[in-house]
Design brief:
Elements (H helix, E strand, L loop, with lengths): L2 H26 L7 H21 L6 H15 L7 H25 L5 H24 L1 H10 L10 H21 L3 H6 L1 H9 L3 H17 L7 H22 L5 H15 L6 H19 L10 H9 L8 H30 L6 H16 L9 H26 L1
Helix pairs in contact: 1-2, 1-5, 2-4, 3-4, 3-15, 4-17, 5-7, 5-9, 5-17, 7-9, 7-10, 10-11, 10-16, 13-14, 13-15, 15-16, 15-17, 16-17
Length: about 400
């Protein structure tokens, strides 16, 4: 077997291992015992990548990855001034592990041909198969009954918001391939994770899917505008949005519609809004008050529970990634973390004029994720680091392609 063929075989094995790892992580993320199987697969993946690094005597990295490591180290340092240093050290350890995870996977997928395409499809198919697993967990009949009754489905498997986000990202990616590759099969495929996404009753799902579809249509423009094609796209977009708005108001999705309506009421300060929305606003105010007291260093990573305890007598997190980081790590940690997002988004915007369609979907994922982070804490989520990996791989490959073109 030639060197090139051997490399392809190893890369294919790594792709399969990473896919299986992500799928099992989705399925058993809340089960401490079963999720260990995904960790075993990840260790095998890391082992293969380590052998590649040793053989090639080269480690690939970029400035944002260095920023991720610096952020993790800064979080460790925050234990020296944290209210509870033990909690801060535990969270810093998690961030160091995620930093290593990002470095290893970056080395792997940056060396795989069409790595960004492979990674997108891994995320899409893992989310779709996981959606089938969720439906079959209950049985098609019981799932449909729960759906018709407006129940929030998935609590027995994992946090419903987590399920909703995982499956809705798969929905967006499937719609992306359907629109940009003009393949109806992907649009049909998107219906499976879409049903599970809506079944979770998560308000974040609505935001992600609606904004995601809008951005995919807006960014999907051609150099020369063909009036007929453009009109078809506008009609298709209008039909998708109309159908989505119609479906979301059906009795089976009444829970998610009502929760979304109350959230909007809470933000506008008018009408009826639920206790959850009211609590979140209280957390945000408490977090901002703490930030003004300790603007540069914060109270220590993962120490937000002390802020919420003082505010409402509940030990929890601040339910807002921006406020969470500002309150616990100050403006220093906030800037270190979001410098990675800024790097990816700015480069994607600069590269929009290129023919690389993957730039568009990466930009959509990051912009929608930044909107969602107003209502969730995700800086230590493994899924977030997978999206960062996708963004870095896509941007770096496009930058490398531009440099190679100039050299030629």
């Amino acid at each position: 077997m030639g060197k090139t063929n051997k490399t392809k075989v190893i890369n294919n094995i790594k792709i399969i291992l990473f896919f299986m790892y992500l799928l099992i992580f989705y399925m058993f993320g809340a089960d401490v015992e079963k999720v260990k199987y995904s960790e075993v697969l990840l260790l095998l993946f890391i082992g293969l990548e380590f052998l590649d690094v040793v053989r090639n005597k080269k480690i690939r990295y970029c400035i944002p990855i260095i920023s991720v490591f610096i952020f993790a180290f800064y979080c460790f340092l925050s234990s020296f001034w944290a209210i509870n240093s033990e909690i801060a050290i535990d969270r810093a350890k998690t961030l160091f592990v995620l930093s290593i995870f990002l470095l290893v996977t970056y080395n792997s997928f940056s060396n795989i041909e069409n790595g960004e395409d492979k990674l997108l499809k891994i995320i899409m198919y893992a989310g779709t198969i996981f959606s089938i697993y969720v439906i079959m967990y209950y049985g098609i009949g019981e799932y449909m009954t729960k759906l018709m009754n407006g129940d929030r489905i998935g609590t027995e498997i994992n946090n419903v918001n987590t399920i909703g986000l995982q499956t809705s990202i798969s929905t967006i990616i499937a719609i992306f391939y359907g629109l940009y590759d003009n393949k109806k099969s992907y649009l049909l495929l998107s219906l499976i994770p879409l049903i599970v996404s809506l079944g979770t009753g998560s308000r974040k799902v609505i935001v992600l899917i609606v904004f995601g579809i809008i951005l995919l249509f807006v960014l999907n423009r051609e150099e020369k505008i063909n009036l007929i094609k453009f009109t078809k796209k506008i009609i298709a977009f209008a039909i998708i949005i109309a159908l989505f708005l119609f479906v979301i108001r059906l009795p089976m999705f009444s829970t998610i519609y009502e929760r979304m309506e109350m959230t909007i009421n809470g933000l506008m300060g008018k009408g009826e809004f639920d206790h959850s929305t009211e609590l979140r606003e209280t957390y945000i105010k408490a977090g901002m008050n703490q930030f003004f007291k300790t603007p540069f260093l914060g109270v220590g990573i993962a120490n937000s529970s002390y802020i919420t305890m003082q505010a409402v007598g509940i030990s929890t997190y601040l339910h807002n990634n921006y406020i969470e980081l500002l309150a616990t790590t100050g403006i220093t940690g906030f800037c270190l973390y979001y410098s990675v997002y800024l790097y990816i988004i700015i480069n994607c915007i600069k590269m929009l004029k290129t023919k690389n369609k993957f730039i568009n979907v990466v930009l959509v994922i990051f912009l929608t994720n930044m909107i969602l982070e107003y209502g969730m804490v995700s800086y230590y989520s493994k899924s977030t680091y997978i999206y960062i990996l996708l963004g870095l791989i896509t941007v770096q490959k496009e930058r490398k392609g531009n440099i190679d073109e100039k050299d030629n």
